[in-house]
Design brief:
This protein is of the alpha/beta class. 26% of the residues lie in helices and 17% in strands. The chain has a five-stranded parallel β-sheet. A two-stranded antiparallel ribbon has the order 3-9. Strands 5-6 form a two-stranded antiparallel sheet.
Amino acid sequence: MSKTASYAGDVDVLTAWKALSQDPEAVLVDVRTHAEWSYVGIPVLDQPDRDVLLVEWLSYPDMSVHGDFAERLLTELENRKVAKDSPIYFLCRSGARSQHAAIEMTPKWDGPCYNVASGFEGDLDDTLHRSNCNGWKHAGLPWRQF
């Protein structure tokens, strides 16, 4: 894929899970904050030797964007010897931050950059709670406490 290719778009959690399960080169990047990883949990991939990359897009408590996000992620990918044309799936709480991260990485990565649209916890339900209508946890996909 060309570095000038457009953002690959949004996918639902089951599409992302299927792609991650079937393609050993595909990478899942969780861009939530360290506090979210610690208190809410992190996704788990079904192959024991594969880790989810944890790279913050924003920093708690001021929630400012990391200006060096792309550089930090590229370093992580290089350290793990990820092929430069591998697909990357970006995940956050509900799909907003991860979409920004995927768009940011698109011109810097040869492979497609996808956003996992409903994220780890999903959208708010009618009672203003998450994990009840969509998202990684609601779909019953594997996760653990950090």
